[in-house]
Write a structure and sequence with these properties.
The structure is a single chain. The chain is 69% helix and 1% strand. It has a two-stranded antiparallel sheet. Strand 1 and strand 2 form a beta hairpin. It contains 16 helices and 2 strands. Helix 12 crosses helix 14.
């Protein structure tokens, strides 16, 4: 349940486009099985149509999760097609999470268009999200090794919900004092909210590709580390990023009062004693400068580097096919290398 993937560079590795082209027909086939009205909302969320069903080519997601699923299957030594059911399922779950996330956060736009709940209404958007979730389960249940795959998906979903719940609760907690959010709590939240589905995508693809349990587990952990690293880099971009890249105003996360890692890390420094007062004001540029001076930006990037190294180590130690393993590493570097 995150917009992090929206900020990746334009020079994407070829694996993203290759996997997207492989998965797209199966994803469309799955969506077309839904009730026509619900299918239209789902198609709108993917950028395939306008409200009313007229064809469109609006910006969609980069397809990171589906690429991870396909590459997970190939890394296990299987044909790319073995990972397609996993790719479709995780893409459907991701879309479901975004529909509900926009409602919970009150975000009126998604990928520079009205969010589904704005375009169709809150109730219909909830229904469309529920339908996408059910379709993901149906897709995996019909795949080879379906029961085991469903267990992986359900575990990831449980962690995703916990992460989202933590994120919502964090908004109600104070910046300082015994009730404040700690960096450790934030790491746990980010692994659930962002990392769980990335790890699940890799693990599901490997599982459907016939990988042994140890390899599946290693890929799950690598994806989770990747998710945390990506979220931390996104936090940095959310304060100091170029609006042309992030799609947000300068200091966008500060304007929204988000408890992101750079802020939480800075609040632990004596140099940031004036920061709580600035966070409650509209002096966003001064707050951003103080967060950087207090070490918040450096701490977030250092943690992202550590998580990236952990993901690389897991990929290097697993018994993976050399070509797909190299593609996974390049994709990892692309996703988290924006500021590292």
């Amino acid at each position: 349940m995150t917009a992090a993937v929206s900020a990746v560079r334009e020079s994407a590795p070829p694996s993203l486009a290759r996997c997207r082209e492989l998965v797209r027909p199966r994803l469309r086939e799955a969506v077309e099985r839904l009730h026509p009205w619900v299918a239209e909302m789902a198609a709108y969320s993917f950028g395939w149509c306008e409200v009313g069903g007229a064809p469109a080519s609006a910006p969609g997601g980069k397809g990171v999760r589906q690429a991870l699923a396909v590459l997970g299957a190939e890394a296990a030594g299987a044909d790319a097609r073995a990972g397609v059911p996993a790719a479709v399922a995780v893409e459907l779950v991701h879309a479901f999470s975004l529909l509900h996330d926009d409602i919970m956060d009150g975000d009126a736009t998604r990928r520079r268009r009205p969010a589904v709940w704005q375009a169709y209404g809150t109730g219909p958007a909830v229904l469309a999200g529920d339908a996408l979730f059910a379709l993901a389960v149906e897709t995996l249940a019909a795949a080879p090794q379906g029961p085991g795959a469903l267990r992986l998906l359900s575990a990831a979903l449980a962690d995703l919900v916990r992460g989202q719940a933590d994120d919502l609760v964090f908004a109600t907690r104070p910046w300082t004092g015994p009730g404040r959010v700690t960096p450790r709590e934030y790491r746990v939240m980010a692994e659930g909210k962002t990392g769980a589905l990335l790890g699940c995508a890799l693990a599901l693809g490997a599982a459907l590709g016939g990988a042994p349990r140890d390899t599946v587990g290693a890929l799950d952990r690598a994806g989770r580390h990747l998710g945390v690293a990506f979220q931390l880099v996104d936090d940095v971009l959310g304060i100091w990023g170029d609006p042309a890249v992030t799609g947000k105003p300068v200091g966008g996360d500060l304007r929204e009062g988000k408890k992101t890692f750079p802020v939480l890390a800075a609040l632990g420094s004596p140099a940031a004693r004036r920061l709580p007062a600035l966070l409650g004001s509209r002096e966003y540029e001064r707050a951003a400068a103080l967060i950087e001076d207090a070490g918040g930006r450096a701490a977030a990037l250092a943690e992202a580097r550590s998580r990236t190294a952990a993901a690389r180590e897991l990929l290097g130690s697993a018994q993976l096919a050399a070509g797909p393993s190299g593609e996974l590493t390049r994709l990892l570097d692309h996703l988290v290398g924006r500021e590292l």
